[in-house]
Amino acid sequence: MPDRIAVVYFRVSTKRQGRSGLGMEAQREAVERFAEAQGFALVSAFTEVETGKGSDALEARPQLAAAIRDANLRQCPVLVAKLDRLSRDVHFISGLMRTRVPFIVTELGPDADPFMLHVYAALAEKERAMISTRTKAALAAARARGTRLGNPNGAAHLQGLGNASAIEALKAGAAQRAAGLAGLLDSIRAQGVTSANGIAQVLNARRIATPRGGLWTARSVLNVLDRLAA
Question: Which of 7, 73, 81, 180 fits a disulfide with 30 by CB distance 3.0 to 4.6 angstroms?
Answer without folding.
Answer: 81
